[in-house]
Amino acid sequence: DLTKRTLNIFIKCACLVLLLFGIWMCLGGVFLLLKYRYTGVFFSSFYIDLPVLLAVISGVLLFIGGSLGCVLSRIDSPCLQALFVYFLIVVCCAMSTASALAYFHTGKLDVDLAPLKDVFQNYSGDSQDPDTRAVNALQSELKCCGVTNYTDWMDTPWFNHSGKYEVPPSCCNKTFHICNGTIYSPKLLYNEGCQSKFKDKLHLVLVVIMLASFGVILTLIFSAISVGHLMKHNPPQEYQILDQQ
């Protein structure tokens, strides 16, 4: 009938949305986890990457559930409908947890980033050193220099022992090719510090996770309600004893 056809169309559209959300969250989460390989030294604990990890897991489940829902819109199977609802519940729990963790970490980013200053102090200039690679990567990517600004480098052991009065090359503004890192030409260096820019970037990532989780949860709720109504139109057939001839 018309109601059943409308529900199937809605479920199909919702499943396509879930598929897109799943692909986007998987790709975005994997990208962030790869970034965490070098930024992990800046955090006080590894728990801050749990929202991202849960987002990746939820993305995989969303992809599976969305694919199952697309099949469900074509086949009237009570078993598939029940399995689809089960997937929706699991994904909803995972997304809720990811959103809660993201919200929790937005209020304690200063505590999570407490080791950042120590990592800058441990800078050695050796490309094989994890702290050195992390600092160079952070300054190049965020276009920043030092913790608060380039003058922070003057208080580091690396700067005092080198005797060159230069900051790392990663502090150089890429628009100036003549930059060699000397502190006597501060206009050639990035002016902003890394702590505030890194904190703002993390805050943005966590807010995106919360908003995405909220959107997915709403889609899941409407999908579950639609499947519930669809199951009323397709009640499971009861077993009957066949009359013996």
From TrEMBL:
Short name of any one Pfam family annotated for the protein: Tetraspanin
Keywords tagged on the record: Membrane, Transmembrane, Transmembrane helix
GO cellular component: plasma membrane
InterPro entries reported in the protein's UniProt record: Tetraspanin/Peripherin, Tetraspanin_animals, Tetraspanin_EC2_sf
Membrane topology of the entry: Multi-pass membrane protein
Ranges that cross the membrane: 9-34, 46-71, 83-104, 202-225
Family the UniProt entry places it in: Belongs to the tetraspanin (TM4SF) family.
Alphabetical list of PANTHER family matching this protein: TETRASPANIN (PTHR19282)
Protein name: Tetraspanin
Source lineage: Eukaryota, Metazoa, Chordata, Craniata, Vertebrata
